[in-house]
Write a structure and sequence with these properties.
CATH architecture of chain B: Orthogonal Bundle
Order of helices and strands of chain B: HHEEHHHHEHEHHHHHHHH
Strand order of the largest sheet of chain B: 1-2
Shape of chain A: globular
Strand content of chain A: 15-25%
Radius of gyration of chain A: 24 Å
Low-confidence stretches of chain A: 1-8, 18-33
Low-confidence stretches of chain B: none
Distance between the termini of chain A: 47 Å
CATH topology of the largest domain in chain A: Rossmann fold
Structural class of chain B: mainly alpha
Number of helices of chain A: 13
Mean pLDDT of chain B: 89
Order of helices and strands of chain A: HEHEHEHEEHEHEHEHEEEHEHHHEEEEEH
Largest interface: A-B, 49 and 45 residues
Strand content of chain B: 5-15%
CATH architecture of the largest domain in chain A: 3-Layer(aba) Sandwich
Shape of chain B: globular
CATH topology of chain B: ABC transporter involved in vitamin B12 uptake, BtuC
Radius of gyration of chain B: 22 Å
Oligomer: heterodimer
Number of strands of chain B: 4
Largest sheet of chain B: 2 strands, antiparallel
Mean pLDDT of chain A: 90
Helix content of chain A: 25-40%
Distance between the termini of chain B: 47 Å
Helix content of chain B: 55-70%
């Protein structure tokens, strides 16, 4: 029978050996030998497309996924090349990214923050995604952006319009191509003043979450600055489907404008209810009652049907634009899928190309190198005219489209008409603007 | 005052939908003892019967028009509906315009069939299982049905208009001595309220004044004794399940012009309707109807700015708050029967 003698030296040696053993798998999978999370080692690179595949925004997510697949096709040298041919930066030659073939994995955000974080985490940890992109909700974008910052990968946001995404919740690893609530307000206000005058009483119905709050704040500030009075701001539950209880008080409130700070199903339902209650036929204060939908989407306009006719709003991009980039993208997408792309599809396609180009210019997939390449990057040819990825907050600045529901559509896709292309200078703001204050980009995190 | 009347009207309208779904839930629970979490999906199937009929009327053939181009610059395709091709422009336009009311004719056989298949094919196997099992299986069924609908129709709301004659608002203010347009209420919402009262009245009359209804009511009270009398109560309960499914389906058909249907619209209504059933009293049909309208009105009042200014967020919890108060004060609900779910 042997007797073991436990000494301090034994304990230290055993502890060190066990610690090293436990740490080994993490060290290998984290790719720390390259100094950043999920450094690609073979001849492929994996991107993570995190879009709503179920839930209320599943159709928008499906369109995003189509655009992602098209972007991958073009990056790998297949198809007609789409906007690779019109993009002002010429590093993308159809040979993947940094010579590595682009592969992708997909996740389902379900338009729920926790589910979106879980799917992003899985794509980073299990599938080795070096970049996460996508989404169709600001709540989700902010949640996933935070996760990517912690994990040390780049997050290229999809459709997110809240000021907070690049405001108080901005992160060094996160980048947004889509416009925001402030920009919508800055573009819309002059058009509304020209059409409806300076003496108006506006009533806001607002979806009760980060996007709704910041859009309401932006629109109210912009319209009040031109002389409008804000009669009331009413928050509505995100899950609401019947807005009649919220619309009825508008009727006798003295308001002559209703601003619907709603998106998706909320927008379709609240607009439908507002039209049902005859708001568009009302005359208040000797003026025709008007409805405004600050953020439009063609997919949602389709849901709202004839109710959108003549209603003003704003959008990030529209398939009817006639610049070379837009035409190339619409041709590529339309030929492959049989219908024109949505603004969600456009923004995620652009984000994929911008990420790929930044990697090529930086000569690395290291998020800090990619981030540096994106910061202050000026480009053209992606459908929005000259665009700047501002270094201070990682927000893209570009022209904004003011649109109106088309009175006489010529096809099922011809739902919105562009009223004005508002120049970038008019929608620009200082990085420390109060509506975007309170956040800090922090330092880039390469992970591992 | 005009604001209060408007909210009462809104409450009656919302209550109509709650009452119709709760009525079906109570019928199923009272007869079969099954807590049917798939009932909201039946409402959705009904709603999509209206969408489907509209799409059937829109089936078209394409011809090329070389004088016009599509979004890619190719010669445009012009679509003509078969309806127009066969019956002419006038009748085709009329049928498309009235597609929602006409969808009732489509929904009745479909919902009866769905009800029978659901009960015979799945739910009958869970009669003697605990309520938790019934909830799990019916909840799972609801998810499957929703996903099937989403597969075919997508996730976005689908606009389904009422007939042109019902578009617009009725000026009730003038009738009630108020200023013109002070109380303007949409025609279709009034149609929905009237429709729901007819359906509710029809179900009650059917149960009260027919032999079939008498047997069902007897079965609800004492299933064993009715069985001992040689009556095939199971067959009647299957038909009752189908009737409950049809009531939910018709509620869905007529609701489509109020809120453009989505595949998941039934979930919210189902949760609220369960609260309605509990507040009304498990197994009580009049209780379900009463609670449906009551909670609809209370929910509408809670959405008023004057109320929300005092109690922010009350509109989001009022229904559940009411349920807590009612259950604390009257544990069996407003009109609950003794012995139901008390073992």
């Amino acid at each position: 029978m042997s007797k073991s003698i436990l000494t301090r030296r034994n304990v230290l040696q055993t502890g060190a050996a066990a610690g090293a053993g436990l740490a080994l798998p993490t060290i290998l999978t984290a790719g720390s030998h390259s100094g950043y999370t999920n450094a690609p080692t073979g001849n492929t690179v994996t991107l993570g497309f995190n879009v709503p595949q179920t839930g209320a925004y599943a159709d928008e997510g499906a369109d995003e996924l189509r655009a992602y697949m098209l972007a991958v096709e073009h990056l790998n040298g297949e198809g007609d090349g789409g906007m690779l041919n019109t993009f002002s930066s010429k590093t993308l030659e159809g040979n993947g990214i940094l010579g590595k073939k682009v592969e992708y994995v997909t996740g389902d955000t379900q338009t729920k923050s926790d589910a979106a974080r879980a799917s992003a985490k899985s794509m980073i940890e299990k599938d080795g995604a070096v970049m996460i992109t996508g989404g169709s909700s600001s709540g989700v974008a902010i949640a996933v952006q935070g996760l990517c910052q912690e994990a040390g990968v780049i997050f290229m946001a999809g459709l997110t319009h809240s000021n907070d995404t690049t405001g108080k919740d901005k992160k060094a690893n996160g980048f947004r191509h889509f416009f925001n609530g402030y920009m919508s307000a800055a573009a819309l206000a002059p058009v509304l003043q020209a059409r409806y005058g300076s003496d108006r009483n506006a009533y806001h119905l607002t979806a009760d979450y980060t996007w709704g709050w910041t859009q309401e704040e932006s629109i109210a500030a912009a319209t009040e600055a031109m002389g409008w009075n804000t009669v009331n701001k009413v928050r509505t539950p995100l899950k609401a489907t019947d807005f009649s209880s919220y619309i009825a008080p508008v009727l006798n409130s003295g308001a002559d404008v209703l601003v619907l700070n709603h998106y998706g199903g909320n927008m379709v339902n609240s607009l439908t209810n507002a039209v049902q209650f005859g708001l568009r036929d009302k005359v208040v204060n000797n003026k025709n009652f008007e409805i405004i939908v600050p953020l439009y989407s063609r997919l949602m306009a389709k849901g709202a049907g004839a109710n959108v006719k003549g209603i003003f709003g704003s959008t990030n991009w529209h398939w009817s634009l006639q610049d070379e980039g837009s035409k190339a993208f619409v041709k590529s997408f339309g030929t492959k899928y049989g219908f024109p792309p949505s603004q969600a599809a456009h923004t995620v396609y652009c984000q994929t190309l911008l990420y790929a180009d930044a990697c090529n210019r930086a000569g690395t997939f290291n998020p800090c190198g990619v981030g540096e390449a994106l910061e202050g990057f000026e480009f053209d040819g992606l459908g929005n005219g000259k665009t700047l990825y501002r270094a201070d907050d990682h927000q893209c600045f570009k022209d904004v489209l003011v649109v109106k529901g088309k009175e006489n559509p010529t096809s099922e896709f011809d739902l919105l008409e562009i009223v004005e292309v508002t120049p970038m200078e008019q929608v620009k703001y200082a990085p420390d603007h109060p509506m975007f204050a309170g956040g800090d980009l922090g330092a880039c995190n390469p992970g591992a | 005052m005009d604001a209060i009347i408007l909210q009462i009207l809104n409450g009656l309208d919302k209550g109509s939908a709650y009452a119709l779904i709760a009525l079906g839930l109570t019928l199923i629970f009272g007869t079969l003892g099954v807590v049917n979490f798939a009932h909201g999906a039946l409402f959705v199937i009904g709603a999509f019967c209206a969408v489907t009929l509209n799409r059937i009327f829109s089936i078209s053939f394409a011809t090329t028009d070389p004088t016009k181009v599509d979004f890619l610059g190719n010669p445009a395709t012009i679509k003509t509906t078969y309806l127009e091709h066969w019956f002419g422009a006038g009748p085709a336009a009329w049928m498309t315009d009235w597609s929602v009311p006409l969808a009732i004719l489509l929904a009745i056989p479909i919902m009866l069939l769905v009800g029978v298949i659901m009960e015979r094919g799945l739910i009958k196997h869970f009669y003697k299982r605990p309520h938790a099992d019934q909830i799990l299986v019916t909840f799972g069924l609801a998810i499957v049905l929703q996903e099937i609908i989403k597969f075919f129709y997508g996730a976005n709301p689908i606009q389904t208009a009422p007939p042109d004659v019902f578009i617009g608002t009725m000026d009730l203010g003038i009738w009630l001595g108020f200023e013109a347009n002070a109380i303007a209420y949409p025609y279709w919402r009034m149609v929905y309220f009237l429709f729901s009262t007819v359906i509710i009245g029809g179900v009650f009359a059917f149960l009260q004044f027919t032999t079939f209804g008498m047997v069902v009511r007897a079965g609800m009270a004492d299933r064993e004794t009715v069985g001992l009398l040689g009556i095939d109560i199971d067959k009647r309960f299957t038909i009752t399940f189908a009737i409950a499914a049809t009531v939910a389906g018709l509620a869905g058909v007529m609701y489509t012009p109020i809120t453009p249907p989505t595949y998941d619209i039934g979930v919210e209504l189902l949760v609220l309707s369960f609260v309605v059933v509990v507040v009304g009293g498990m197994g009580s049909l009049p209780g379900a109807v009463l609670a449906g309208f009551l909670l609809g009105i209370v929910e509408s009042f809670a959405s008023m700015n004057e109320v929300k200014n005092i109690l922010p967020g009350i509109d989001q919890i009022i229904v559940y708050l009411m349920a807590i108060i009612v259950i604390l004060v009257r544990p069996r609900g407003l009109m609950g029967r003794k012995g139901v779910m008390e073992d």
